[in-house]
Amino acid sequence: MRTAPTILHLDMDAFFASVEQASKPSLRGKAVVVGGLGPRGVVATASYEARIFGVHSAMPTAQARRLAPHAAYLVPRFGLYRSVSEQVMGLLRELSPLVEPLSLDEAFVDLEAGGSAWDGESARLAGSKLRADIRAATGLTGSVGLAASKMLAKIASEQAKPDGLVLVEPGTEQALLGPMPVRTLPGVGPATGDHLRRAGITTVEELAEAGEDELVRLLGKAHGHALSAMALARDQRPVVAERETKSVSVEDTYDVDIHDRVRVGIEVQRLADRCVGRLRGAGLSGRTIVLKVRRYDFSTLTRSETLRGPTDDPAVVREAAARLLEAVDTTGGVRLLGVGVTGLADYTQEDLFAQAAGERAAGDPVAEAVPEAVAEQPETTERLWRAGQDVRHAEHGYGWVQGSGLGRVTVRFETPQSDPGRVRTFRGDDPDLEPADPLPLVPGPPERDCAASDGAQPSSVPASLPKSWSESLGGEATSRP
Ligand code: TTP
Ligand code: MG
Ligand code: MG
């Protein structure tokens, strides 16, 4: 194991909620809950102000509303979170080629491999500078942990939260870990935790004292061995830049060549659904859809299509696979078909919403793909305004939907750079009001190497805002809610 604390773990603070507060000046310092807003929705995250009331990730939104009735409840804007995430990951890659993203808001960085730190002092400097750079580029705070191993770096960033930096001096790891609950260690979930508790082991210190033989007896060879090493703060896992899984794919070989074009189409749809099942099972999403066809004469071809952003939506994968199939001549018959997804990302956060929608529409793979809030809407010709959504009014400029119902929509007109804005109510079908793209959190030159990857990107917003925008802020933008 290395001797210097040069593994960095970054995790953004209350990520989705902080992006919302940065976007919406009237919500800064306030309780904000982001999640599914329908009756079966779940909380994605809550601002630290809302956590005081006990609201947390994965809690049913209905329960959150009881605990924090005055919080702002907003739908997630994944496009914006992704683009902010790309900015943050870009800053990490300036520190080292070895960056291992764990989710949208979290990554390990091997500072030593990048030459940006070699001892405690240089690591602390790099970590502080990174936090300042993230703040300057995004307006958001992230917490940093520094240690000689991944396990300790992650524990350190948790301790640093919110808006802090903790460095674990090499040699102090075991003393730090000792009093912590066993659940702190990677790989100790509720089941293992319970199992250990029944054996009288609740802290890491007790785990270390139990010794490897006892742990192997309790938990089996692999798990017991790994855990006894972790308990002694021995964690040799390297920071890996590449994901292990580069693609997820499924294929079928047919006993008899398929000639019927319709049947080929149906098979491809089935394979697409199975592929998405695997993708979701691994908590992944991907950008590139690949179709593989082996024809009667064993000639094999692959066709691919890259989407603007990663997806784990069965309808999207099916459509892409069907488009790819259209361009393939299958007249002689096919003996093998395959559908795969590559360009993977682990945007597991969307799963929560997908699951909520899926529960209602169990068995219907198309409905499963419909975002929850949409799936819950009764048949209506009215436009759908969702709390938190970006809008633009012909006269009043940019704002966001604060609430809607009974054919009305309430909009707060403010932008990331404005003062807290004013609220106005319109008819839901007001022709002057239209959905808009999110505005960048930080103005100025477009962020470096942040390639736009899907429709709702701040980088797609014109640098100079329309006149009505600046006008709408004049004088009357002072009332705080
Ligand atoms: P986290 O980093 O776990 O949480 P957080 O950033 O909101 O707060 P903290 O300061 O404690 O790190 O998750 C990052 C984002 O992922 C979070 O903002 C929302 C999303 N998310 C979900 O959608 N569902 C979940 O269950 C969790 C844990 C997170
Ligand atoms: Mg976080
Ligand atoms: Mg995180």
Automatic annotation (TrEMBL):
<dbReference type="GO" id="GO:0009432">
    <property type="term" value="P:SOS response"/>
</dbReference>
<feature type="region of interest" description="Disordered">
    <location>
        <begin position="414"/>
        <end position="481"/>
    </location>
</feature>
<feature type="binding site">
    <location>
        <position position="105"/>
    </location>
    <ligand>
        <name>Mg(2+)</name>
    </ligand>
</feature>
<keyword id="KW-0515">Mutator protein</keyword>
<dbReference type="InterPro" id="IPR050116">
    <property type="entry name" value="DNA_polymerase-Y"/>
</dbReference>
<dbReference type="InterPro" id="IPR017961">
    <property type="entry name" value="DNA_pol_Y-fam_little_finger"/>
</dbReference>
<dbReference type="Pfam" id="PF00817">
    <property type="entry name" value="IMS"/>
</dbReference>
<dbReference type="GO" id="GO:0003887">
    <property type="term" value="F:DNA-directed DNA polymerase activity"/>
</dbReference>
<keyword id="KW-0235">DNA replication</keyword>
<dbReference type="Pfam" id="PF11799">
    <property type="entry name" value="IMS_C"/>
</dbReference>
<protein>
    <recommendedName>
        <fullName>DNA polymerase IV</fullName>
        <ecNumber>2.7.7.7</ecNumber>
    </recommendedName>
</protein>
<dbReference type="InterPro" id="IPR043128">
    <property type="entry name" value="Rev_trsase/Diguanyl_cyclase"/>
</dbReference>
<dbReference type="GO" id="GO:0042276">
    <property type="term" value="P:error-prone translesion synthesis"/>
</dbReference>
<keyword id="KW-0808">Transferase</keyword>
<keyword id="KW-0460">Magnesium</keyword>
<comment type="similarity">
    <text>Belongs to the DNA polymerase type-Y family.</text>
</comment>
<feature type="site" description="Substrate discrimination">
    <location>
        <position position="16"/>
    </location>
</feature>
<keyword id="KW-0234">DNA repair</keyword>
<comment type="subunit">
    <text>Monomer.</text>
</comment>
<dbReference type="GO" id="GO:0005829">
    <property type="term" value="C:cytosol"/>
</dbReference>
<dbReference type="GO" id="GO:0003684">
    <property type="term" value="F:damaged DNA binding"/>
</dbReference>
<dbReference type="InterPro" id="IPR001126">
    <property type="entry name" value="UmuC"/>
</dbReference>
<keyword id="KW-0479">Metal-binding</keyword>
<feature type="active site">
    <location>
        <position position="106"/>
    </location>
</feature>
<dbReference type="InterPro" id="IPR036775">
    <property type="entry name" value="DNA_pol_Y-fam_lit_finger_sf"/>
</dbReference>
<keyword id="KW-0548">Nucleotidyltransferase</keyword>
<keyword id="KW-0227">DNA damage</keyword>
<keyword id="KW-0238">DNA-binding</keyword>
<feature type="binding site">
    <location>
        <position position="11"/>
    </location>
    <ligand>
        <name>Mg(2+)</name>
    </ligand>
</feature>
<dbReference type="GO" id="GO:0000287">
    <property type="term" value="F:magnesium ion binding"/>
</dbReference>
<dbReference type="InterPro" id="IPR022880">
    <property type="entry name" value="DNApol_IV"/>
</dbReference>
<dbReference type="InterPro" id="IPR043502">
    <property type="entry name" value="DNA/RNA_pol_sf"/>
</dbReference>
<comment type="function">
    <text>Poorly processive, error-prone DNA polymerase involved in untargeted mutagenesis. Copies undamaged DNA at stalled replication forks, which arise in vivo from mismatched or misaligned primer ends. These misaligned primers can be extended by PolIV. Exhibits no 3'-5' exonuclease (proofreading) activity. May be involved in translesional synthesis, in conjunction with the beta clamp from PolIII.</text>
</comment>
<dbReference type="GO" id="GO:0006261">
    <property type="term" value="P:DNA-templated DNA replication"/>
</dbReference>
<dbReference type="Pfam" id="PF14520">
    <property type="entry name" value="HHH_5"/>
</dbReference>
<dbReference type="GO" id="GO:0006281">
    <property type="term" value="P:DNA repair"/>
</dbReference>
<feature type="compositionally biased region" description="Polar residues">
    <location>
        <begin position="456"/>
        <end position="471"/>
    </location>
</feature>
<feature type="domain" description="UmuC">
    <location>
        <begin position="7"/>
        <end position="189"/>
    </location>
</feature>
<keyword id="KW-0963">Cytoplasm</keyword>
<keyword id="KW-0239">DNA-directed DNA polymerase</keyword>
